[in-house]
Amino acid sequence: MKEGFRQSMAWLHTWSGLLVGWVLFMVFAAGTATYFKDEITFWMKPELHAVTPNAAPQAKAAEGAVAFLQQRAADAPRWFITLPTEREPSTSVLYLKPPPPAGAAPVERRRRFDQALLDPATGQAVTAPRETRGGEFFYRLHFDLHYMPAIWARWIVGFCAMFMLVAIFSGIVTHRRIFKDFFTFRPKKGQRSWLDAHNVTAVLALPYHAMITYTGLVTLMFMYMPWAPQAAYKDHGGTEAFFAEAFPGGGRTQFKASGTKAPLAPIAPMVAAASSHWNGAPVGRITVHFPNDANAVVSIARAGTQRLSSDQPSMQFNGVTGAQIGTFGDVPKAAAETRGVLYGLHIGRFADPLLRALFFLSGLAGCLMVATGLLLWAVKERQKFAKTLKQGGRIGFGLRLVDGLNLGAIAGLPMAMAAFFWANRLLPLDVADRGEAEIGWFFTVWGAAAALGLLRPTLRMWQAQLALGALLFVLLPVLNAFTGPAPLTVSLRSGPSAVAGFDLVAIALGLGLAGATWLVERKRRKAVSRQPAGTPPGLAASGQGS
Amino acid sequence: MGALLLALVFVASLAGFCALSLAMDRHSEDVFGRGSTPGPWRRWLQLGGTVLLCVSLGASLQAAGSAIGWVLWLGALTAAALATVGLLGCAPRRFHWIASAAAAVALLGLLVCLLLAASGT
Amino acid sequence: MRGKPLQMRMILIWTGLFSPSFHEFPNDFARRPAHVVSASFRYRLGVASRAIAAIAGGYGVAALSAAALALCLPAAFGMARSEAAMTGTLASFIVFALAVMWVFAARTAWRAWSGLVIAAVVPGSLVLLLTRAGGGGA
After folding, report:
1. Cα angle A171, A176, A177; round to 5
2. Cβ distance A37 to A138 under 8 Å?
3. A185, B76: Cβ pair inside 8 Å?
4. Are residues A160 and A264 in the same domain?
5. Residue A226 within any structural domain of the chain
6. Would the CB atoms of A384 and C20 count as touching at under 8 Å?
7. Do residues A402 and A259 share a domain?
8. What's the pTM value of the predicted model, to 2 decimals?
9. Chains that touch B (3 or more CB pairs under 8 A)
10. Predicted ipTM > 0.85
């Protein structure tokens, strides 16, 4: 029955991939962009390009941040201080605004925070950059989607991720000649080329695809599968007890304000003590619970670049006396560490620039895998209509829908991303809720592309959208030159490397899209030349397969 | 030493995959023309390719540690495999020269790394 | 389509014309030839049945196996409770994927559902037993 098994897995692979392919393409694209979200955010704040923050020892940076927060937000319930790193050389502070008075309207989650970027040496706020969500938009997009409550989005994305996991497993089972076909790519052979492209992008980055899909589910696993903690802790304190045991030192809810004021102890000795406890490892994030309160607690976590696991050891200090309350996470337990490693693999913060570039490459392969899969289905399906088409008939509704969705998703998304970057530089600085306005451009362009794609899913439309995307991307460095202080000529020599990198990758992506446009042109010419005399031109134009 | 090890990771995995691809009839035909097979070289190419991939793994573990080293190796493998497919498509006639050059560079690099390690650098 | 009788091939070609999007097919259709007009409907019903089994049934099996692991591992190996809960949750997604594959690989829809039920009964009874034991003992 082996043949039956492979056949059924082929069917499963097709449908588990197709039904959610368009969402997955966006998740892969946004997720791949997220590997460089810090750099993207930096590019989108040109006010910061000419400013080089002064490096300072960690203790000094922490002191500066605390001084700033004491001025700005002395009565906030919580402060978050992220000390400078190589990728983000300014100190980043975030604080919870005091909750609105009882009876007032509840504030949306994002608006409950305020943030600022500080110079590590002086503790002063860096020139206020334009309001933009930056790379964080892509990060949130790939699991929180947009324009919907986060919980719904995470269930939708989780559902799609589960489909993807099934598609990966069934794809492996069904790919009979996985080793023989390992390096096979036969261009210009129609359906076979699409299959080869799908196989190459899928198999050659298979460890990555399997890892990223499974670990993606792991990041939200307690939401998707709360049953194990629930069952195990049913009579032992419930899921709260589970989280306290599994993630010691992470609890926020255990701290409560006393109401009496007390000055905050100096932060520098705490930073020094933490760092020396971890054998000189740098400190990452400092959280101050209820600053200037008698029950203040300072929680310090280690910086996360040395190991795979995303769980970092942390230490807690009494906020008034400066005494150590406890150290957590120095000796992680096996399963918790496993989960930490899986989580860490997904967010990839341990990756240095080279490894990050490899992740990015694999992510791009993932986007191509999904895209070629969707297009392969359409090509195969179209062949069943070959006879009908020849006799002047039309393709079925399902195929037409898939054609349109393919166009809108695959050609429209790059255009939308480029439009997001163009909006960042062209929108006036004083637009209300500017960050959301830039995002609005992303979705407007994507929506228009999708609508046009569904209306006229022709080769010409593919060309138009791919070409426009190519143009918008390739011209991004030009846009940067006119709207920012660090054009490519400067940034390549001395300027911020993040800006140079962004500009170069934009050009590369634009060239890639241009290449795709040319491939479509070649196909279009072949389709037109194969047309027998007297056939109405609309038929050939609607043909996308070969 | 660190940069040398990283370069070795990539060159060795590229050479390894090139060797493994030449051990297949299909790609032997791509490079040497229709009907050609690796013949008696098949086992040697397979062995050599595997050895080169192992060298790449070793270099990666040495360069990036025992955990991140595996991740780096798998990423390098992906890049090398994609490059091999690209080379087979774009430069089939010169493929075996490129592969041989990569293998030579890899072995030379390995030798240098071993010497440096032995001399205690 | 080698080895299949001529009638089978005719039925499949007809079905191919009626439901063009379902060209490859799961096994229960291949083994249960039926009258041509209802074949398509019966086929779609089979697919729907399997889809529900896979998604809802698969999730149920995964959830039960997660809970069972969380309860059994401390009892059997003395693993810490939080560790067992973590392990069960991590494993559940693989269980889910395998359950889905089973549902579509099973030769008939009946088999698909029965397999799921069996896969659910084992961890389900473990969970019931251990929760009752834990609750009774505490």
Report:
1. 115
2. yes
3. no
4. no
5. no
6. yes
7. no
8. 0.89
9. A
10. yes
